[in-house]
Amino acid sequence: MKKYTLLLVVVLFAEIVKGQQTQLMLKTMKDIILETKDLSLAFTVEENRDLNMVYLGKKLQDHNEYRQLNGQYKQAHDYTNMYQSAYTASGTRNLLEPAISVEHADGNQSLDLKFVDQQLKTIDNNRKELIIQLKDELYPFYVELHYLTNFQENVIEQWAVIKHNEKKNVKLIKYASANINLKGEDYYLRSYHGDWIAEMQREDEKLTHGIKTLDSKLGTRTNLFRSSYFALGLNNAITENQGTVLLGGLEWSGNFRVDFEKDPQDNLRILAGVNNYASHYSLAAGSNFVTPKFSFTVSTNGLGEGSRNLHDWARKQRLIDGYGERYTLLNNWESTYFNFDEQKISHLLDNTKKLGVDLFLLDDGWFGNKYPRNADTSALGDWEENKSKLPNGLLSIVKEANEKDVKFGIWVEPEMISPKSELYEKKPQWVVKQPKRDEYYFRNQLVLDLSNPEVQDFVFNILDNLFQKNPGLAYIKWDCNAVIYNAYSYFQKDQNNFYVDYTKGLYRVLDRFREKYPTVPMMLCSGGGGRIDYGSLQYFTEYWPSDNTDPFDRIFMQYENSLFFPSIASVNHVTTFGKQDLKFKIDVAMMGKMGFDLNLEELSADELSFAQQAVKTYDQYKHIIWHGDLFRLADPRKDNHASLAYISKDKSQALMLNYLVQYSQISSTSAPIRWLGLDPNKKYKIQEINLHGTNSWIPSELTLSGDFLMKVGLNPILNNNRKSVILALKAIN
Questions:
Q1: pLDDT at residue 194 in the model
Q2: Mean pLDDT of 252-265
Q3: Which of these, 197, 219, 248, lies nearest to 544 by C-alpha position?
Q4: 329-344 b/e (C-beta count within 10 Å ≥ 16 → b)
Q5: What distances in angstroms separate CA 111 from CA 80, 100, 102, 277, 281, one per listed residue?
Q6: Please, which pLDDT band fits residue 74 given cuts at 50, 70 and 90?
């Protein structure tokens, strides 16, 4: 009996000591809390100066309770703290995938980063930036972790600045932008794969223990096979309006890597950054290596809220003139391809005016003389007007466009070079290619070495000369069709730096362009949707989702892109692709920034009249699509229809776009579709627009409350005779 009593006393004493130690630990730990309107991100600095990320989620009301977080997840293992590291280093105590791994100047590959200091900067009334300084105890090696909060939008931007003062270069083996730790039971990933004309193919999966990686090694056009943008559901499968979901992606137009690691204690770590594939970066002493930003939001009300967070943030902080206007345009590509001259262009300018759009865009084929650009096999790099096609130059076309009261824009692909070109003959050392291997072409072209400052100057001057020689030029379509094969730079001393420096070189060119031409509209195209990320979109007003313009396929692509990118940025053209009628094509294009790529002569008089009226109708409602809140009401991958609503910020106007995506004798919408985001106390007059040759099945004087529309809904009555229906709502009280 005495033995058991003594044992109980020992146990109780141990628990008391353990409790005292825990209280002491809580008193000596440093808490760092970063908040947005609804979220908080919490760190602790441990007694040994390890920096841990202990919380990301809904904001707590009592700040004192943040220090309880760390103890909630501690286990009886001495390596548990490493599972929570805010920026996991390799070579010391870490047992998991590192965020950073280096080789020091002396060849040692260990790194142990300790907290040094923190700073909180107020940028404006909506944004704050937290900077946390870390240092290795043995080496003069430093990392700054940056966290920028966008308060109202609940968006956090995260990146790192890496530097050192060692005697020789340090090799950065891995250098992530973000190291995010999440607590949960299960995790559900939505990611996107694809290929040319098959972009944004959705894939949902439950993450298991181990590592799931999304990455690209293509050098350019890096989203061709895989996007860095994803959605992650915590504890529950991803849904539109319920549950906790993280949406984000890397602001980087080069090779990327995003790792999802579920550890033995069921935590999930997200490591996102530049892909270290063939890129063990050599960093000189005293130099800063700034990683790209990883931007994300967390919603506790499903995908829809997360998307609206990103849309508001992007319009405010990323897109050029995100809350401004855009040109609707007519493109010549599908009506002429490479076969045009001044007479045809003059006629297309007339058609631009006749259709009622703002701008005519001259696509590929206008340049090259020694090697004329009559196919995709020559002339990239030789950016002078083809004298046979355009004997009076571009300036005469710009002037004619202005006389006809339309704008004029032009296509370029300045990063690329054709082997059959004068530039290739003069500057072969500017080309990305292995010196002793056969050249291997992607779309009959190679890539210029933008890591070389001389090439950066050349590419900038291509654009600058166009604007200097052609005052009144109003629009640029920037294309990028090739990936990088046989990667080698004649400029780089260390080939490990090439992939990173190529992308940074691209950004330097775009920075110079935007400094001189800050407001010129510019479309981001990359053989379709091969380069859609906020790293590149900060320089552009809009992007091209895919070379596949079949409206049926585009419904799915545009729907998925809407998770991350606002409608004002999505360029959706009405073309000859697809067997659907003109109304369906126009209705699908209205999901974003509508344009046309049609030969008007191929339209019947009735179709031309409808297209002209549709442009006028679009002009009435485009501000709601571009600047309003998006609510996805029906998922085309789950239902036989897609339905989306755009609602003005003041909830006074709305547009509901509905598309049938399964065609059969029995396909229809059999039940009402419930709205979201309306004012329940407002009455809305409902009108069907874009009617073509039929009467609406919606009563002309139908008026319903927001309360009814959100609780009961409204059936747009889609069927084989009504494959697309667009409804406009206007508040009447």
A1: 97
A2: 96
A3: 197
A4: bbbbbbbbebebeeee
A5: 18, 8, 7, 20, 16
A6: low
